[in-house]
Specification:
alpha/beta, Rossmann fold, glycerate kinase, domain 1, six-stranded parallel beta sheet, 16 helices
């Protein structure tokens, strides 16, 4: 098995450790008439109804395993997932919708989720299944705005170079469901959220824009994000006016820490990038690598990260006191500012950036891929490269720098090879980078 295949095997091992099957079976069980969700216990003799709602790329698969545990105890449910991430459920309805830019399906599904939430009463239990992608999928319209206006601001934000925290600050303030506001709809029922984190630091107010978590951000900060990334002239007037009305106190803020509505809400972090990294480390050790987890909260611009990771790999390669071969592991979510019109995603762009830097550095293999199985709007999870990548490209007259400048990494790897193709993994805990140093 060559180093590229070994890197891919290590990545796949990490992904398999955070599948909904494993995470839900660890988090939820029924013994007799008692439902246990992590450290919480509920008497099924007392609960009148159990409703299951959710949003995110992994939420339908999570719902499948919740159904396996609760069966016909579930009264009703509705979950919204990215196109291609659905699975057939018996008690819970699933809608596929747009991601990373919302669409009308997402708006309609969110209304159904809110209907169920508002139907819940004091003796009911609402289980909310949240994973990455929920910010785009669980979506509603600001008052006085058209769907197309909401779609435009989302499209601009994800290409702007803004961090996920900044993007979701804006999203939360264009919604009546994000930023803890789903809790208002569920009250006075008990709400338990099982959450798979896809954000650095695992901040619950950022994952899926925190529909069940207190929000510390403000309308003023949302306006500032748009100003900082020069987007105020590109979004529509109704969207900007809505945010500025909120800044002036005309629109109600998101739910803040300490709000008594959270007294019956329990947020449980069921899956994280670090879990995937630890399993990837075990797989690398089994393959004979001296393995180090370098970073589990990797963030920053793709170009800077590519240079930093290659420099670190080179330091390990040149240090004769370090036992070889070495496997360096990173987890997190890079930021990309898209200025070209090509096809790709942050992982393929990161891999292509690294490939150019590795051109004259044999003995280093670099893989970057998303645990959800998709990178940007492509069907690839990411790519794996080494010193041969650029030489292969030049031999077929493909200029790596040109593809990088045009943000066309998908078509670069389509020509040269190196794509990591998993299909939808039905989970999402950010990205993994696997670096092998020989």
């Amino acid at each position: 098995m060559n180093s590229r295949k070994k890197a891919e095997q290590i990545f796949i091992s990490g992904v398999k450790s955070v599948t909904p099957e494993k995470l839900i079976s660890r988090s939820m069980s029924v013994k007799g008439s008692v439902l246990k969700i992590c450290d919480l216990s509920f008497s099924l003799d007392v609960i009148r109804n159990i409703f299951v709602i959710g949003a995110g790329k992994a939420s339908a698969a999570m719902g499948h395993y919740v159904e396996n545990i609760l069966g016909n105890r579930i009264t009703e449910g509705h979950i919204v997932v990215k196109y291609g991430y659905s699975c057939k459920l018996k008690r819970i309805k699933v809608t596929e919708a747009g991601h990373p830019v919302p669409d009308l399906n997402g708006i309609m599904a969110t209304q159904e989720i809110l209907r169920i939430a508002r139907h819940a009463s004091e003796n009911d239990l609402v289980i909310c299944l949240i994973s990455g992608g929920g910010s785009a999928l669980l979506t509603d319209l600001p008052e006085g705005c058209l769907p197309e206006e909401l779609f435009i601001v989302n499209h601009l934000l994800i290409r702007s170079g803004a961090s996920i925290n900044e993007i979701n600050t804006v999203r939360k303030h264009l919604s009546d469901v994000k930023g803890g506001q789903l809790v208002k709809a569920v009250w006075p029922a008990t709400l338990v959220s099982l959450i798979l984190s896809d954000v650095p630091g695992n901040s619950l107010e950022v994952v899926a824009s925190g529909p069940t978590a207190p929000d510390s951000t403000t309308f003023g900060e949302a306006v500032k994000v748009l100003e900082n990334y020069q987007l105020t002239n590109d979004i529509t007037v109704p969207i900007l006016n809505y945010l500025k009305e909120g800044e002036r106190g005309i629109r109600p803020e998101t739910l803040k820490p300490g709000d008594p509505l959270f007294n019956k809400t329990f947020n449980i972090l069921a899956g994280t990038n670090l879990i995937a990294l630890e399993e990837a480390k075990k797989a690398a050790i089994d393959l004979g690598f001296n393995t180090i987890i370098i970073e589990s909260e990797m963030q920053g611009y793709v170009e800077n990260l590519a240079q930093n990771i290659v420099d670190t790999a080179l330091n390990y390669k040149n240090n004769n006191e370090i036992k070889k071969p070495v496997c360096l592991l990173y987890g997190g979510e890079p930021t990309i500012k898209v200025t070209g019109e090509g096809l790709g995603g942050r992982n393929q762009h990161l891999a292509l950036s690294a490939a150019i830097k590795l051109r004259d550095l044999p003995g280093i293999t670099f893989l970057s891929a998303g645990t959800d199985g998709t990178d940007g709007s492509t069907q690839a999870a990411g790519a794996v490269v080494d010193a041969d990548t650029v030489h292969m490209a030049l031999s077929i007259n493909a200029d790596p720098e040109k593809y990088l400048d045009e943000f066309d990494s998908f078509n670069f790897f389509k020509l040269t090879g190196g794509h990591i193709i998993t299909g939808p993994t039905l989970t999402n805990v950010m990205d993994l980078v696997v670096v092998i140093v020989e």
